[in-house]
Amino acid sequence: MNTRTVYVPTPDGIALATDVCLPDGPGPRPAVVIRTPYGRDAHRAELRGWAAHGFAALAQDVRGRHGSPGEWHPYWGHERADGTAAVAWVRAQAWSNGEVVAAGASYAAHCALVTALAAPAEALRDGIPDDAHRDGAPDAVLRDGVPDAVIAAVPALGLTETAREPGGPERLWARAGWWAAHGDRRDSDPDALTRALADDPGLLEHLPIARLAERLAEGLGRELPSWPRLWADRGRGRLVELGAAARTPLLAVGGTRDPFAEDTVALWHGWGGPARLLLGPWGHRLTADPAAPSRARVNLGALYVRWARAALADRLDPTRHGVIALGDSGRWHSTRVRSAPRSAITAAATPPGGSGSEGPDVERARTVAWPFGSPTGLRLLHGAEFSADPDHPVRSDDLAVPADGDRADRCLLLSPPLPRPLDLAGAAVARINVTADTPCADWAVRLTALDPSGRADPLAFGIVRRTGPPGEAADITVPLGTLGRRLPAGTRLRAEIAGHHFPAHARNPHTGEDPVTATRLAPSRRTVNPRGSALHLPVVARRRYVEPVPEICR
User: Fold this and answer.
1) Are 268 and 323 in contact (CB under 8 A)?
2) What residue spans of 135-274 are helical by DSSP H?
3) Which of 31, 316, 362, 375 has its CA 20 to 30 A from that of 67?
């Protein structure tokens, strides 16, 4: 096999740096296209892996990044036009058999998806010039640029999806870290935020958040002019909406520890064509715990090749199904979508597991309620009344809890030890009856598994924002994501209900102002009413495990 660098033209005349790795032997070949802002050099081993299995493999730097000229504007519409141009270029090569898979992880998954979901009017708006109509209608041009299958791993669906939780609160730590590392620069500096915090520990407490970039720029030695636009965007759910009309096969890969897991599930759940979901025990980097047994590991490269061959040969069932791992146990449960695809409005407004939404339907799983204030459910330790003070927020990076409730900053509940092992697979929610004395309040629910020795392991988390008259009691549903865990006998469940989750999420100022532009903070008095509040967990009643690779590729 051989690898060479070429420059693939875009509709507006910019040539993007692209590495092409071709298999040994005669063609033509199917192709895999990866478009990334993180540097095409990082994909050389992956390209060789695809080529070893008979695929032409390409990795392209998106415009304005690394080896590609142009201006870098994350999530702008040019990714769609540039992607369709790359796919059309591949199909015009002598070594191509015309079959193309668009693939990528994180932002690269966004690039793959917008290319696969390109529509004529949208692609024209994104920059296909008038002379592209030559020798054919715009639809024909676009058809040449739309891939035949998509692999989207831990997808970052857009500005709004990455900047805010579905329930509203701002993802401060993740966005500050990403923008410091990749924003407004041609290359990447993954440790930029860590260094800035070492020099300025109070950096993320800066108000207003909209002007945080000015303070961050002092530590970085460069400006971040695109930072305010991140928070101005409110267009959630666009790709999920477009996906409902798709007929292209989709492999959606995510991790139960990935912050974008619910976007991965929503994309798969709403997809119009054949769709597979692989939800493993991973974070955003799709890496397994080094201590996990070998049976818990999945060779993703081999799986991608096998699935791509099945998708291109039209051997996939026209259904939406998949598998969810039970943590690092090496056991997997099957899941499927039994209903029609959700509308984009439903998918954007209520994530799987939220009130009125449809999460993954795990076979033989049922929802079990763990009522608050019950000796057999979750016993209240302290904090039925607590203070949410943004000057002293509950921290996201500390699992320790107060030993007593003299100055409660959260509501704390604990279950009795599990009498037997428990499999959890599917969507979890907390339904709570609460009161706040401020016009706007965030409600964060953190669920932790405590093993018999007391070691704490994060299990689930959710946060929503509510506005309403101060002092008015409200029933709130807090989606806790899609779980996949096996809990051993003796495990206790600890639930915390708080008003903040900082620095992972921005502090709600409690004044009714937008947290992005607020400059004043105020404490908020909270009450949690155990009566009518409960944790709802997806318990697998009958264990029937599946092998993930055959299930994904059928």
Assistant:
1) no
2) 138-145, 159-163, 172-182, 192-199, 212-220, 227-232, 238-243, 261-270
3) 31
Whole-angstrom distance, CA of residue 369 vs CA of residue 477: 13
Mind listing the pLDDT tens digit for each residue in 315-362? 999 999 999 999 999 999 999 886 544 333 233 333 333 333 456 776
What residues form DSSP beta bridges with 369? 536
- Please check whether residue 51 is in contact with residue 1, taking contact to mean a CB–CB distance below 8 angstroms: yes
Residues 351-373: pLDDT tens digits? 333 333 456 776 667 899 999 99
22 touches 56 (CB < 8 A): yes
Q: Identify the CA nearest to 63 among candidates 51, 81, 90.
A: 81
Strand pairing class (56-61; 149-153): unpaired
3-state SS, one letter per residue, for 421-445? CEEEEEEEEEEEEEEECCCEEEEEE
Q: How far apart are CA 235 and CA 75, in angstroms?
A: 12
Q: Determine the Cα angle at 467 with ends 465 and 473, to 5°.
A: 100
Q: What residues contact residue 202 under an 8 Å CB cut-off, 6+ apart?
A: none
Q: Given a cut of 80, is residue 417 above it in pLDDT?
A: yes
CB 521 within 8 A of CB 509: yes
Copy the structure tokens of residue 204: 């993320």
Is residue 159 within 8 A of residue 198, CB to CB? The reply is no
Q: How many CA atoms lie within 13 A of 369 on its CB side?
A: 10
Strand (E) or helix (H) holding 340: none
Distance between CA atoms of residues 465 and 524, nearest Å: 13
Three-class SS of residue 310? Answer: helix
Which distant-in-sequence residues (6+ apart) come within 8 Å of 132 by Cβ? 11, 138, 141
The CA distances from residue 156 to 176, 346, 397, 519, in Å, are: 15, 19, 23, 30
What is the distance between the alpha carbons of residues 37 and 86, in angstroms, rounded to a whole number? 15
Q: Is 115 helix (H, G, I), strand (E, B) or coil?
A: helix
Is the distance from CB of 138 to CB of 146 less than 8 angstroms?
no
* Separation of first and last alpha carbons in the chain: 30
Encoded amino acid at 132, one letter = A
- Phi/psi at 362 (5° precision): -80, 130
Is residue 22 a contact partner of residue 1, using CB atoms and an 8 Å limit? yes
Residue matched to tokens 């791509």:
308
